[in-house]
Amino acid sequence: MESQRLVFKRSSINEIILGNDIVKEIVSRLLRFRASRNCAVVTSETIAKWYLQPLLSELRSRGFAVSEIVVPDGEKHKNFETASTILSKLCDAKMDRDCPVIALGGGVICDLAGFVASIYKRGLPLVMLPTSLLAMVDACIGGKNGINLAQGKNLAGTFYQPFFTAIDVSVLRTLPLNQLAYGLVEAVKHGAIADTAYFRFILKNLNEIKSKQLPLMQRLIRRSIHIKKSFVAGDELDQGNRSHLNLGHTFGHALEAAGNYIRLHHGEAVGLGMLMAIKAAAAEGILEDDYSQGLKAILTELGLPTSLPAELDKKEILLNLSQDKKKSHNGYQFILPKALGRTTIHQIGCEKIESFLDSAMKI
Ligand SMILES: NC(=O)c1ccc[n+]([C@@H]2O[C@H](COP(=O)([O-])OP(=O)(O)OC[C@H]3O[C@@H](n4cnc5c(N)ncnc54)[C@H](O)[C@@H]3O)[C@@H](O)[C@H]2O)c1
Fold it and tell me: Which domain holds residue 190?
């Protein structure tokens, strides 16, 4: 088992532990933190079937009183209604400010439980146990949480750091392959923004990754955590360097929304968004090295699209770009690649956005 520390100036240190079959270790750490023995586990129906009982048994055998809060699975339940149900259950369980909330699940559960833990009694100790690859390499690192509103995704949320995060790579055994691919897109993005060798490592080891060889997965998750850490540690509140992590996301969000969140999954949209960012960078004359062939090879091997669905309407994409959180009155901010492993922040004036999008769509 290995451990890493993520240090923020504003809040406490988040320790991240990474290993295989680490339930006992998780409970030992909880005991060492001297938190209350009254705790709650927040999970989804799908994850509960696989992983709730072993965790509950270990917690109870070590003296914890545990409330099980099992919510329906899926993005459509990442909303105020589910958050409110969880809050009520925390009240019913008489959770005080020193009672830990343990998030056991994918990015949806990490976001929901993190949000609830941050607002209930103005903050309970939070432990993250991510189970999807996306949550391991992305959602559980950096302290962002959130819920969706009818008007859009992740529109309400807070910055709130867990007091520790434990990643048990052995749970990836049950993760469906499409979900593995969606998580891997974020790891590929980490290579694309900061580490050429990591990008090539993923490209070279796609078969091993798809067969979920655990030592290799651990290596991959370790590298992604390092890269995400390097962007978020100095920018906890997302006001600077952290924006590089948005490579492919501004285009990606616009594509997802243009397809009503049905036609494209987030992971598929971000893969396409990264290809669009390469094209856009070439058109802007800032691309020094075109790595789209390598990126296409990865996406194809993962069964993800490399061309835009014909039915997506350019006007809709444009409209959704104009509603992006990063857009200001001066125009649009994009993260564009300069070369593999290097990105830059690029501003596009409102008057140029349509021709910029035209160039980006020629993937
Ligand atoms: N807070 C952040 O910084 C951040 C970053 C990226 C994404 N997110 C959020 O994360 C969410 C997406 O996360 P996700 O892709 O993990 O989705 P998810 O949580 O819906 O998980 C995807 C599916 O995989 C299942 N699953 C998860 N782990 C499993 C396992 N080990 N075995 C079997 N099935 C398993 C889940 O039950 C679900 O059906 C989005 O809501 C997104 O907004 C947050």
Answer: 183-363
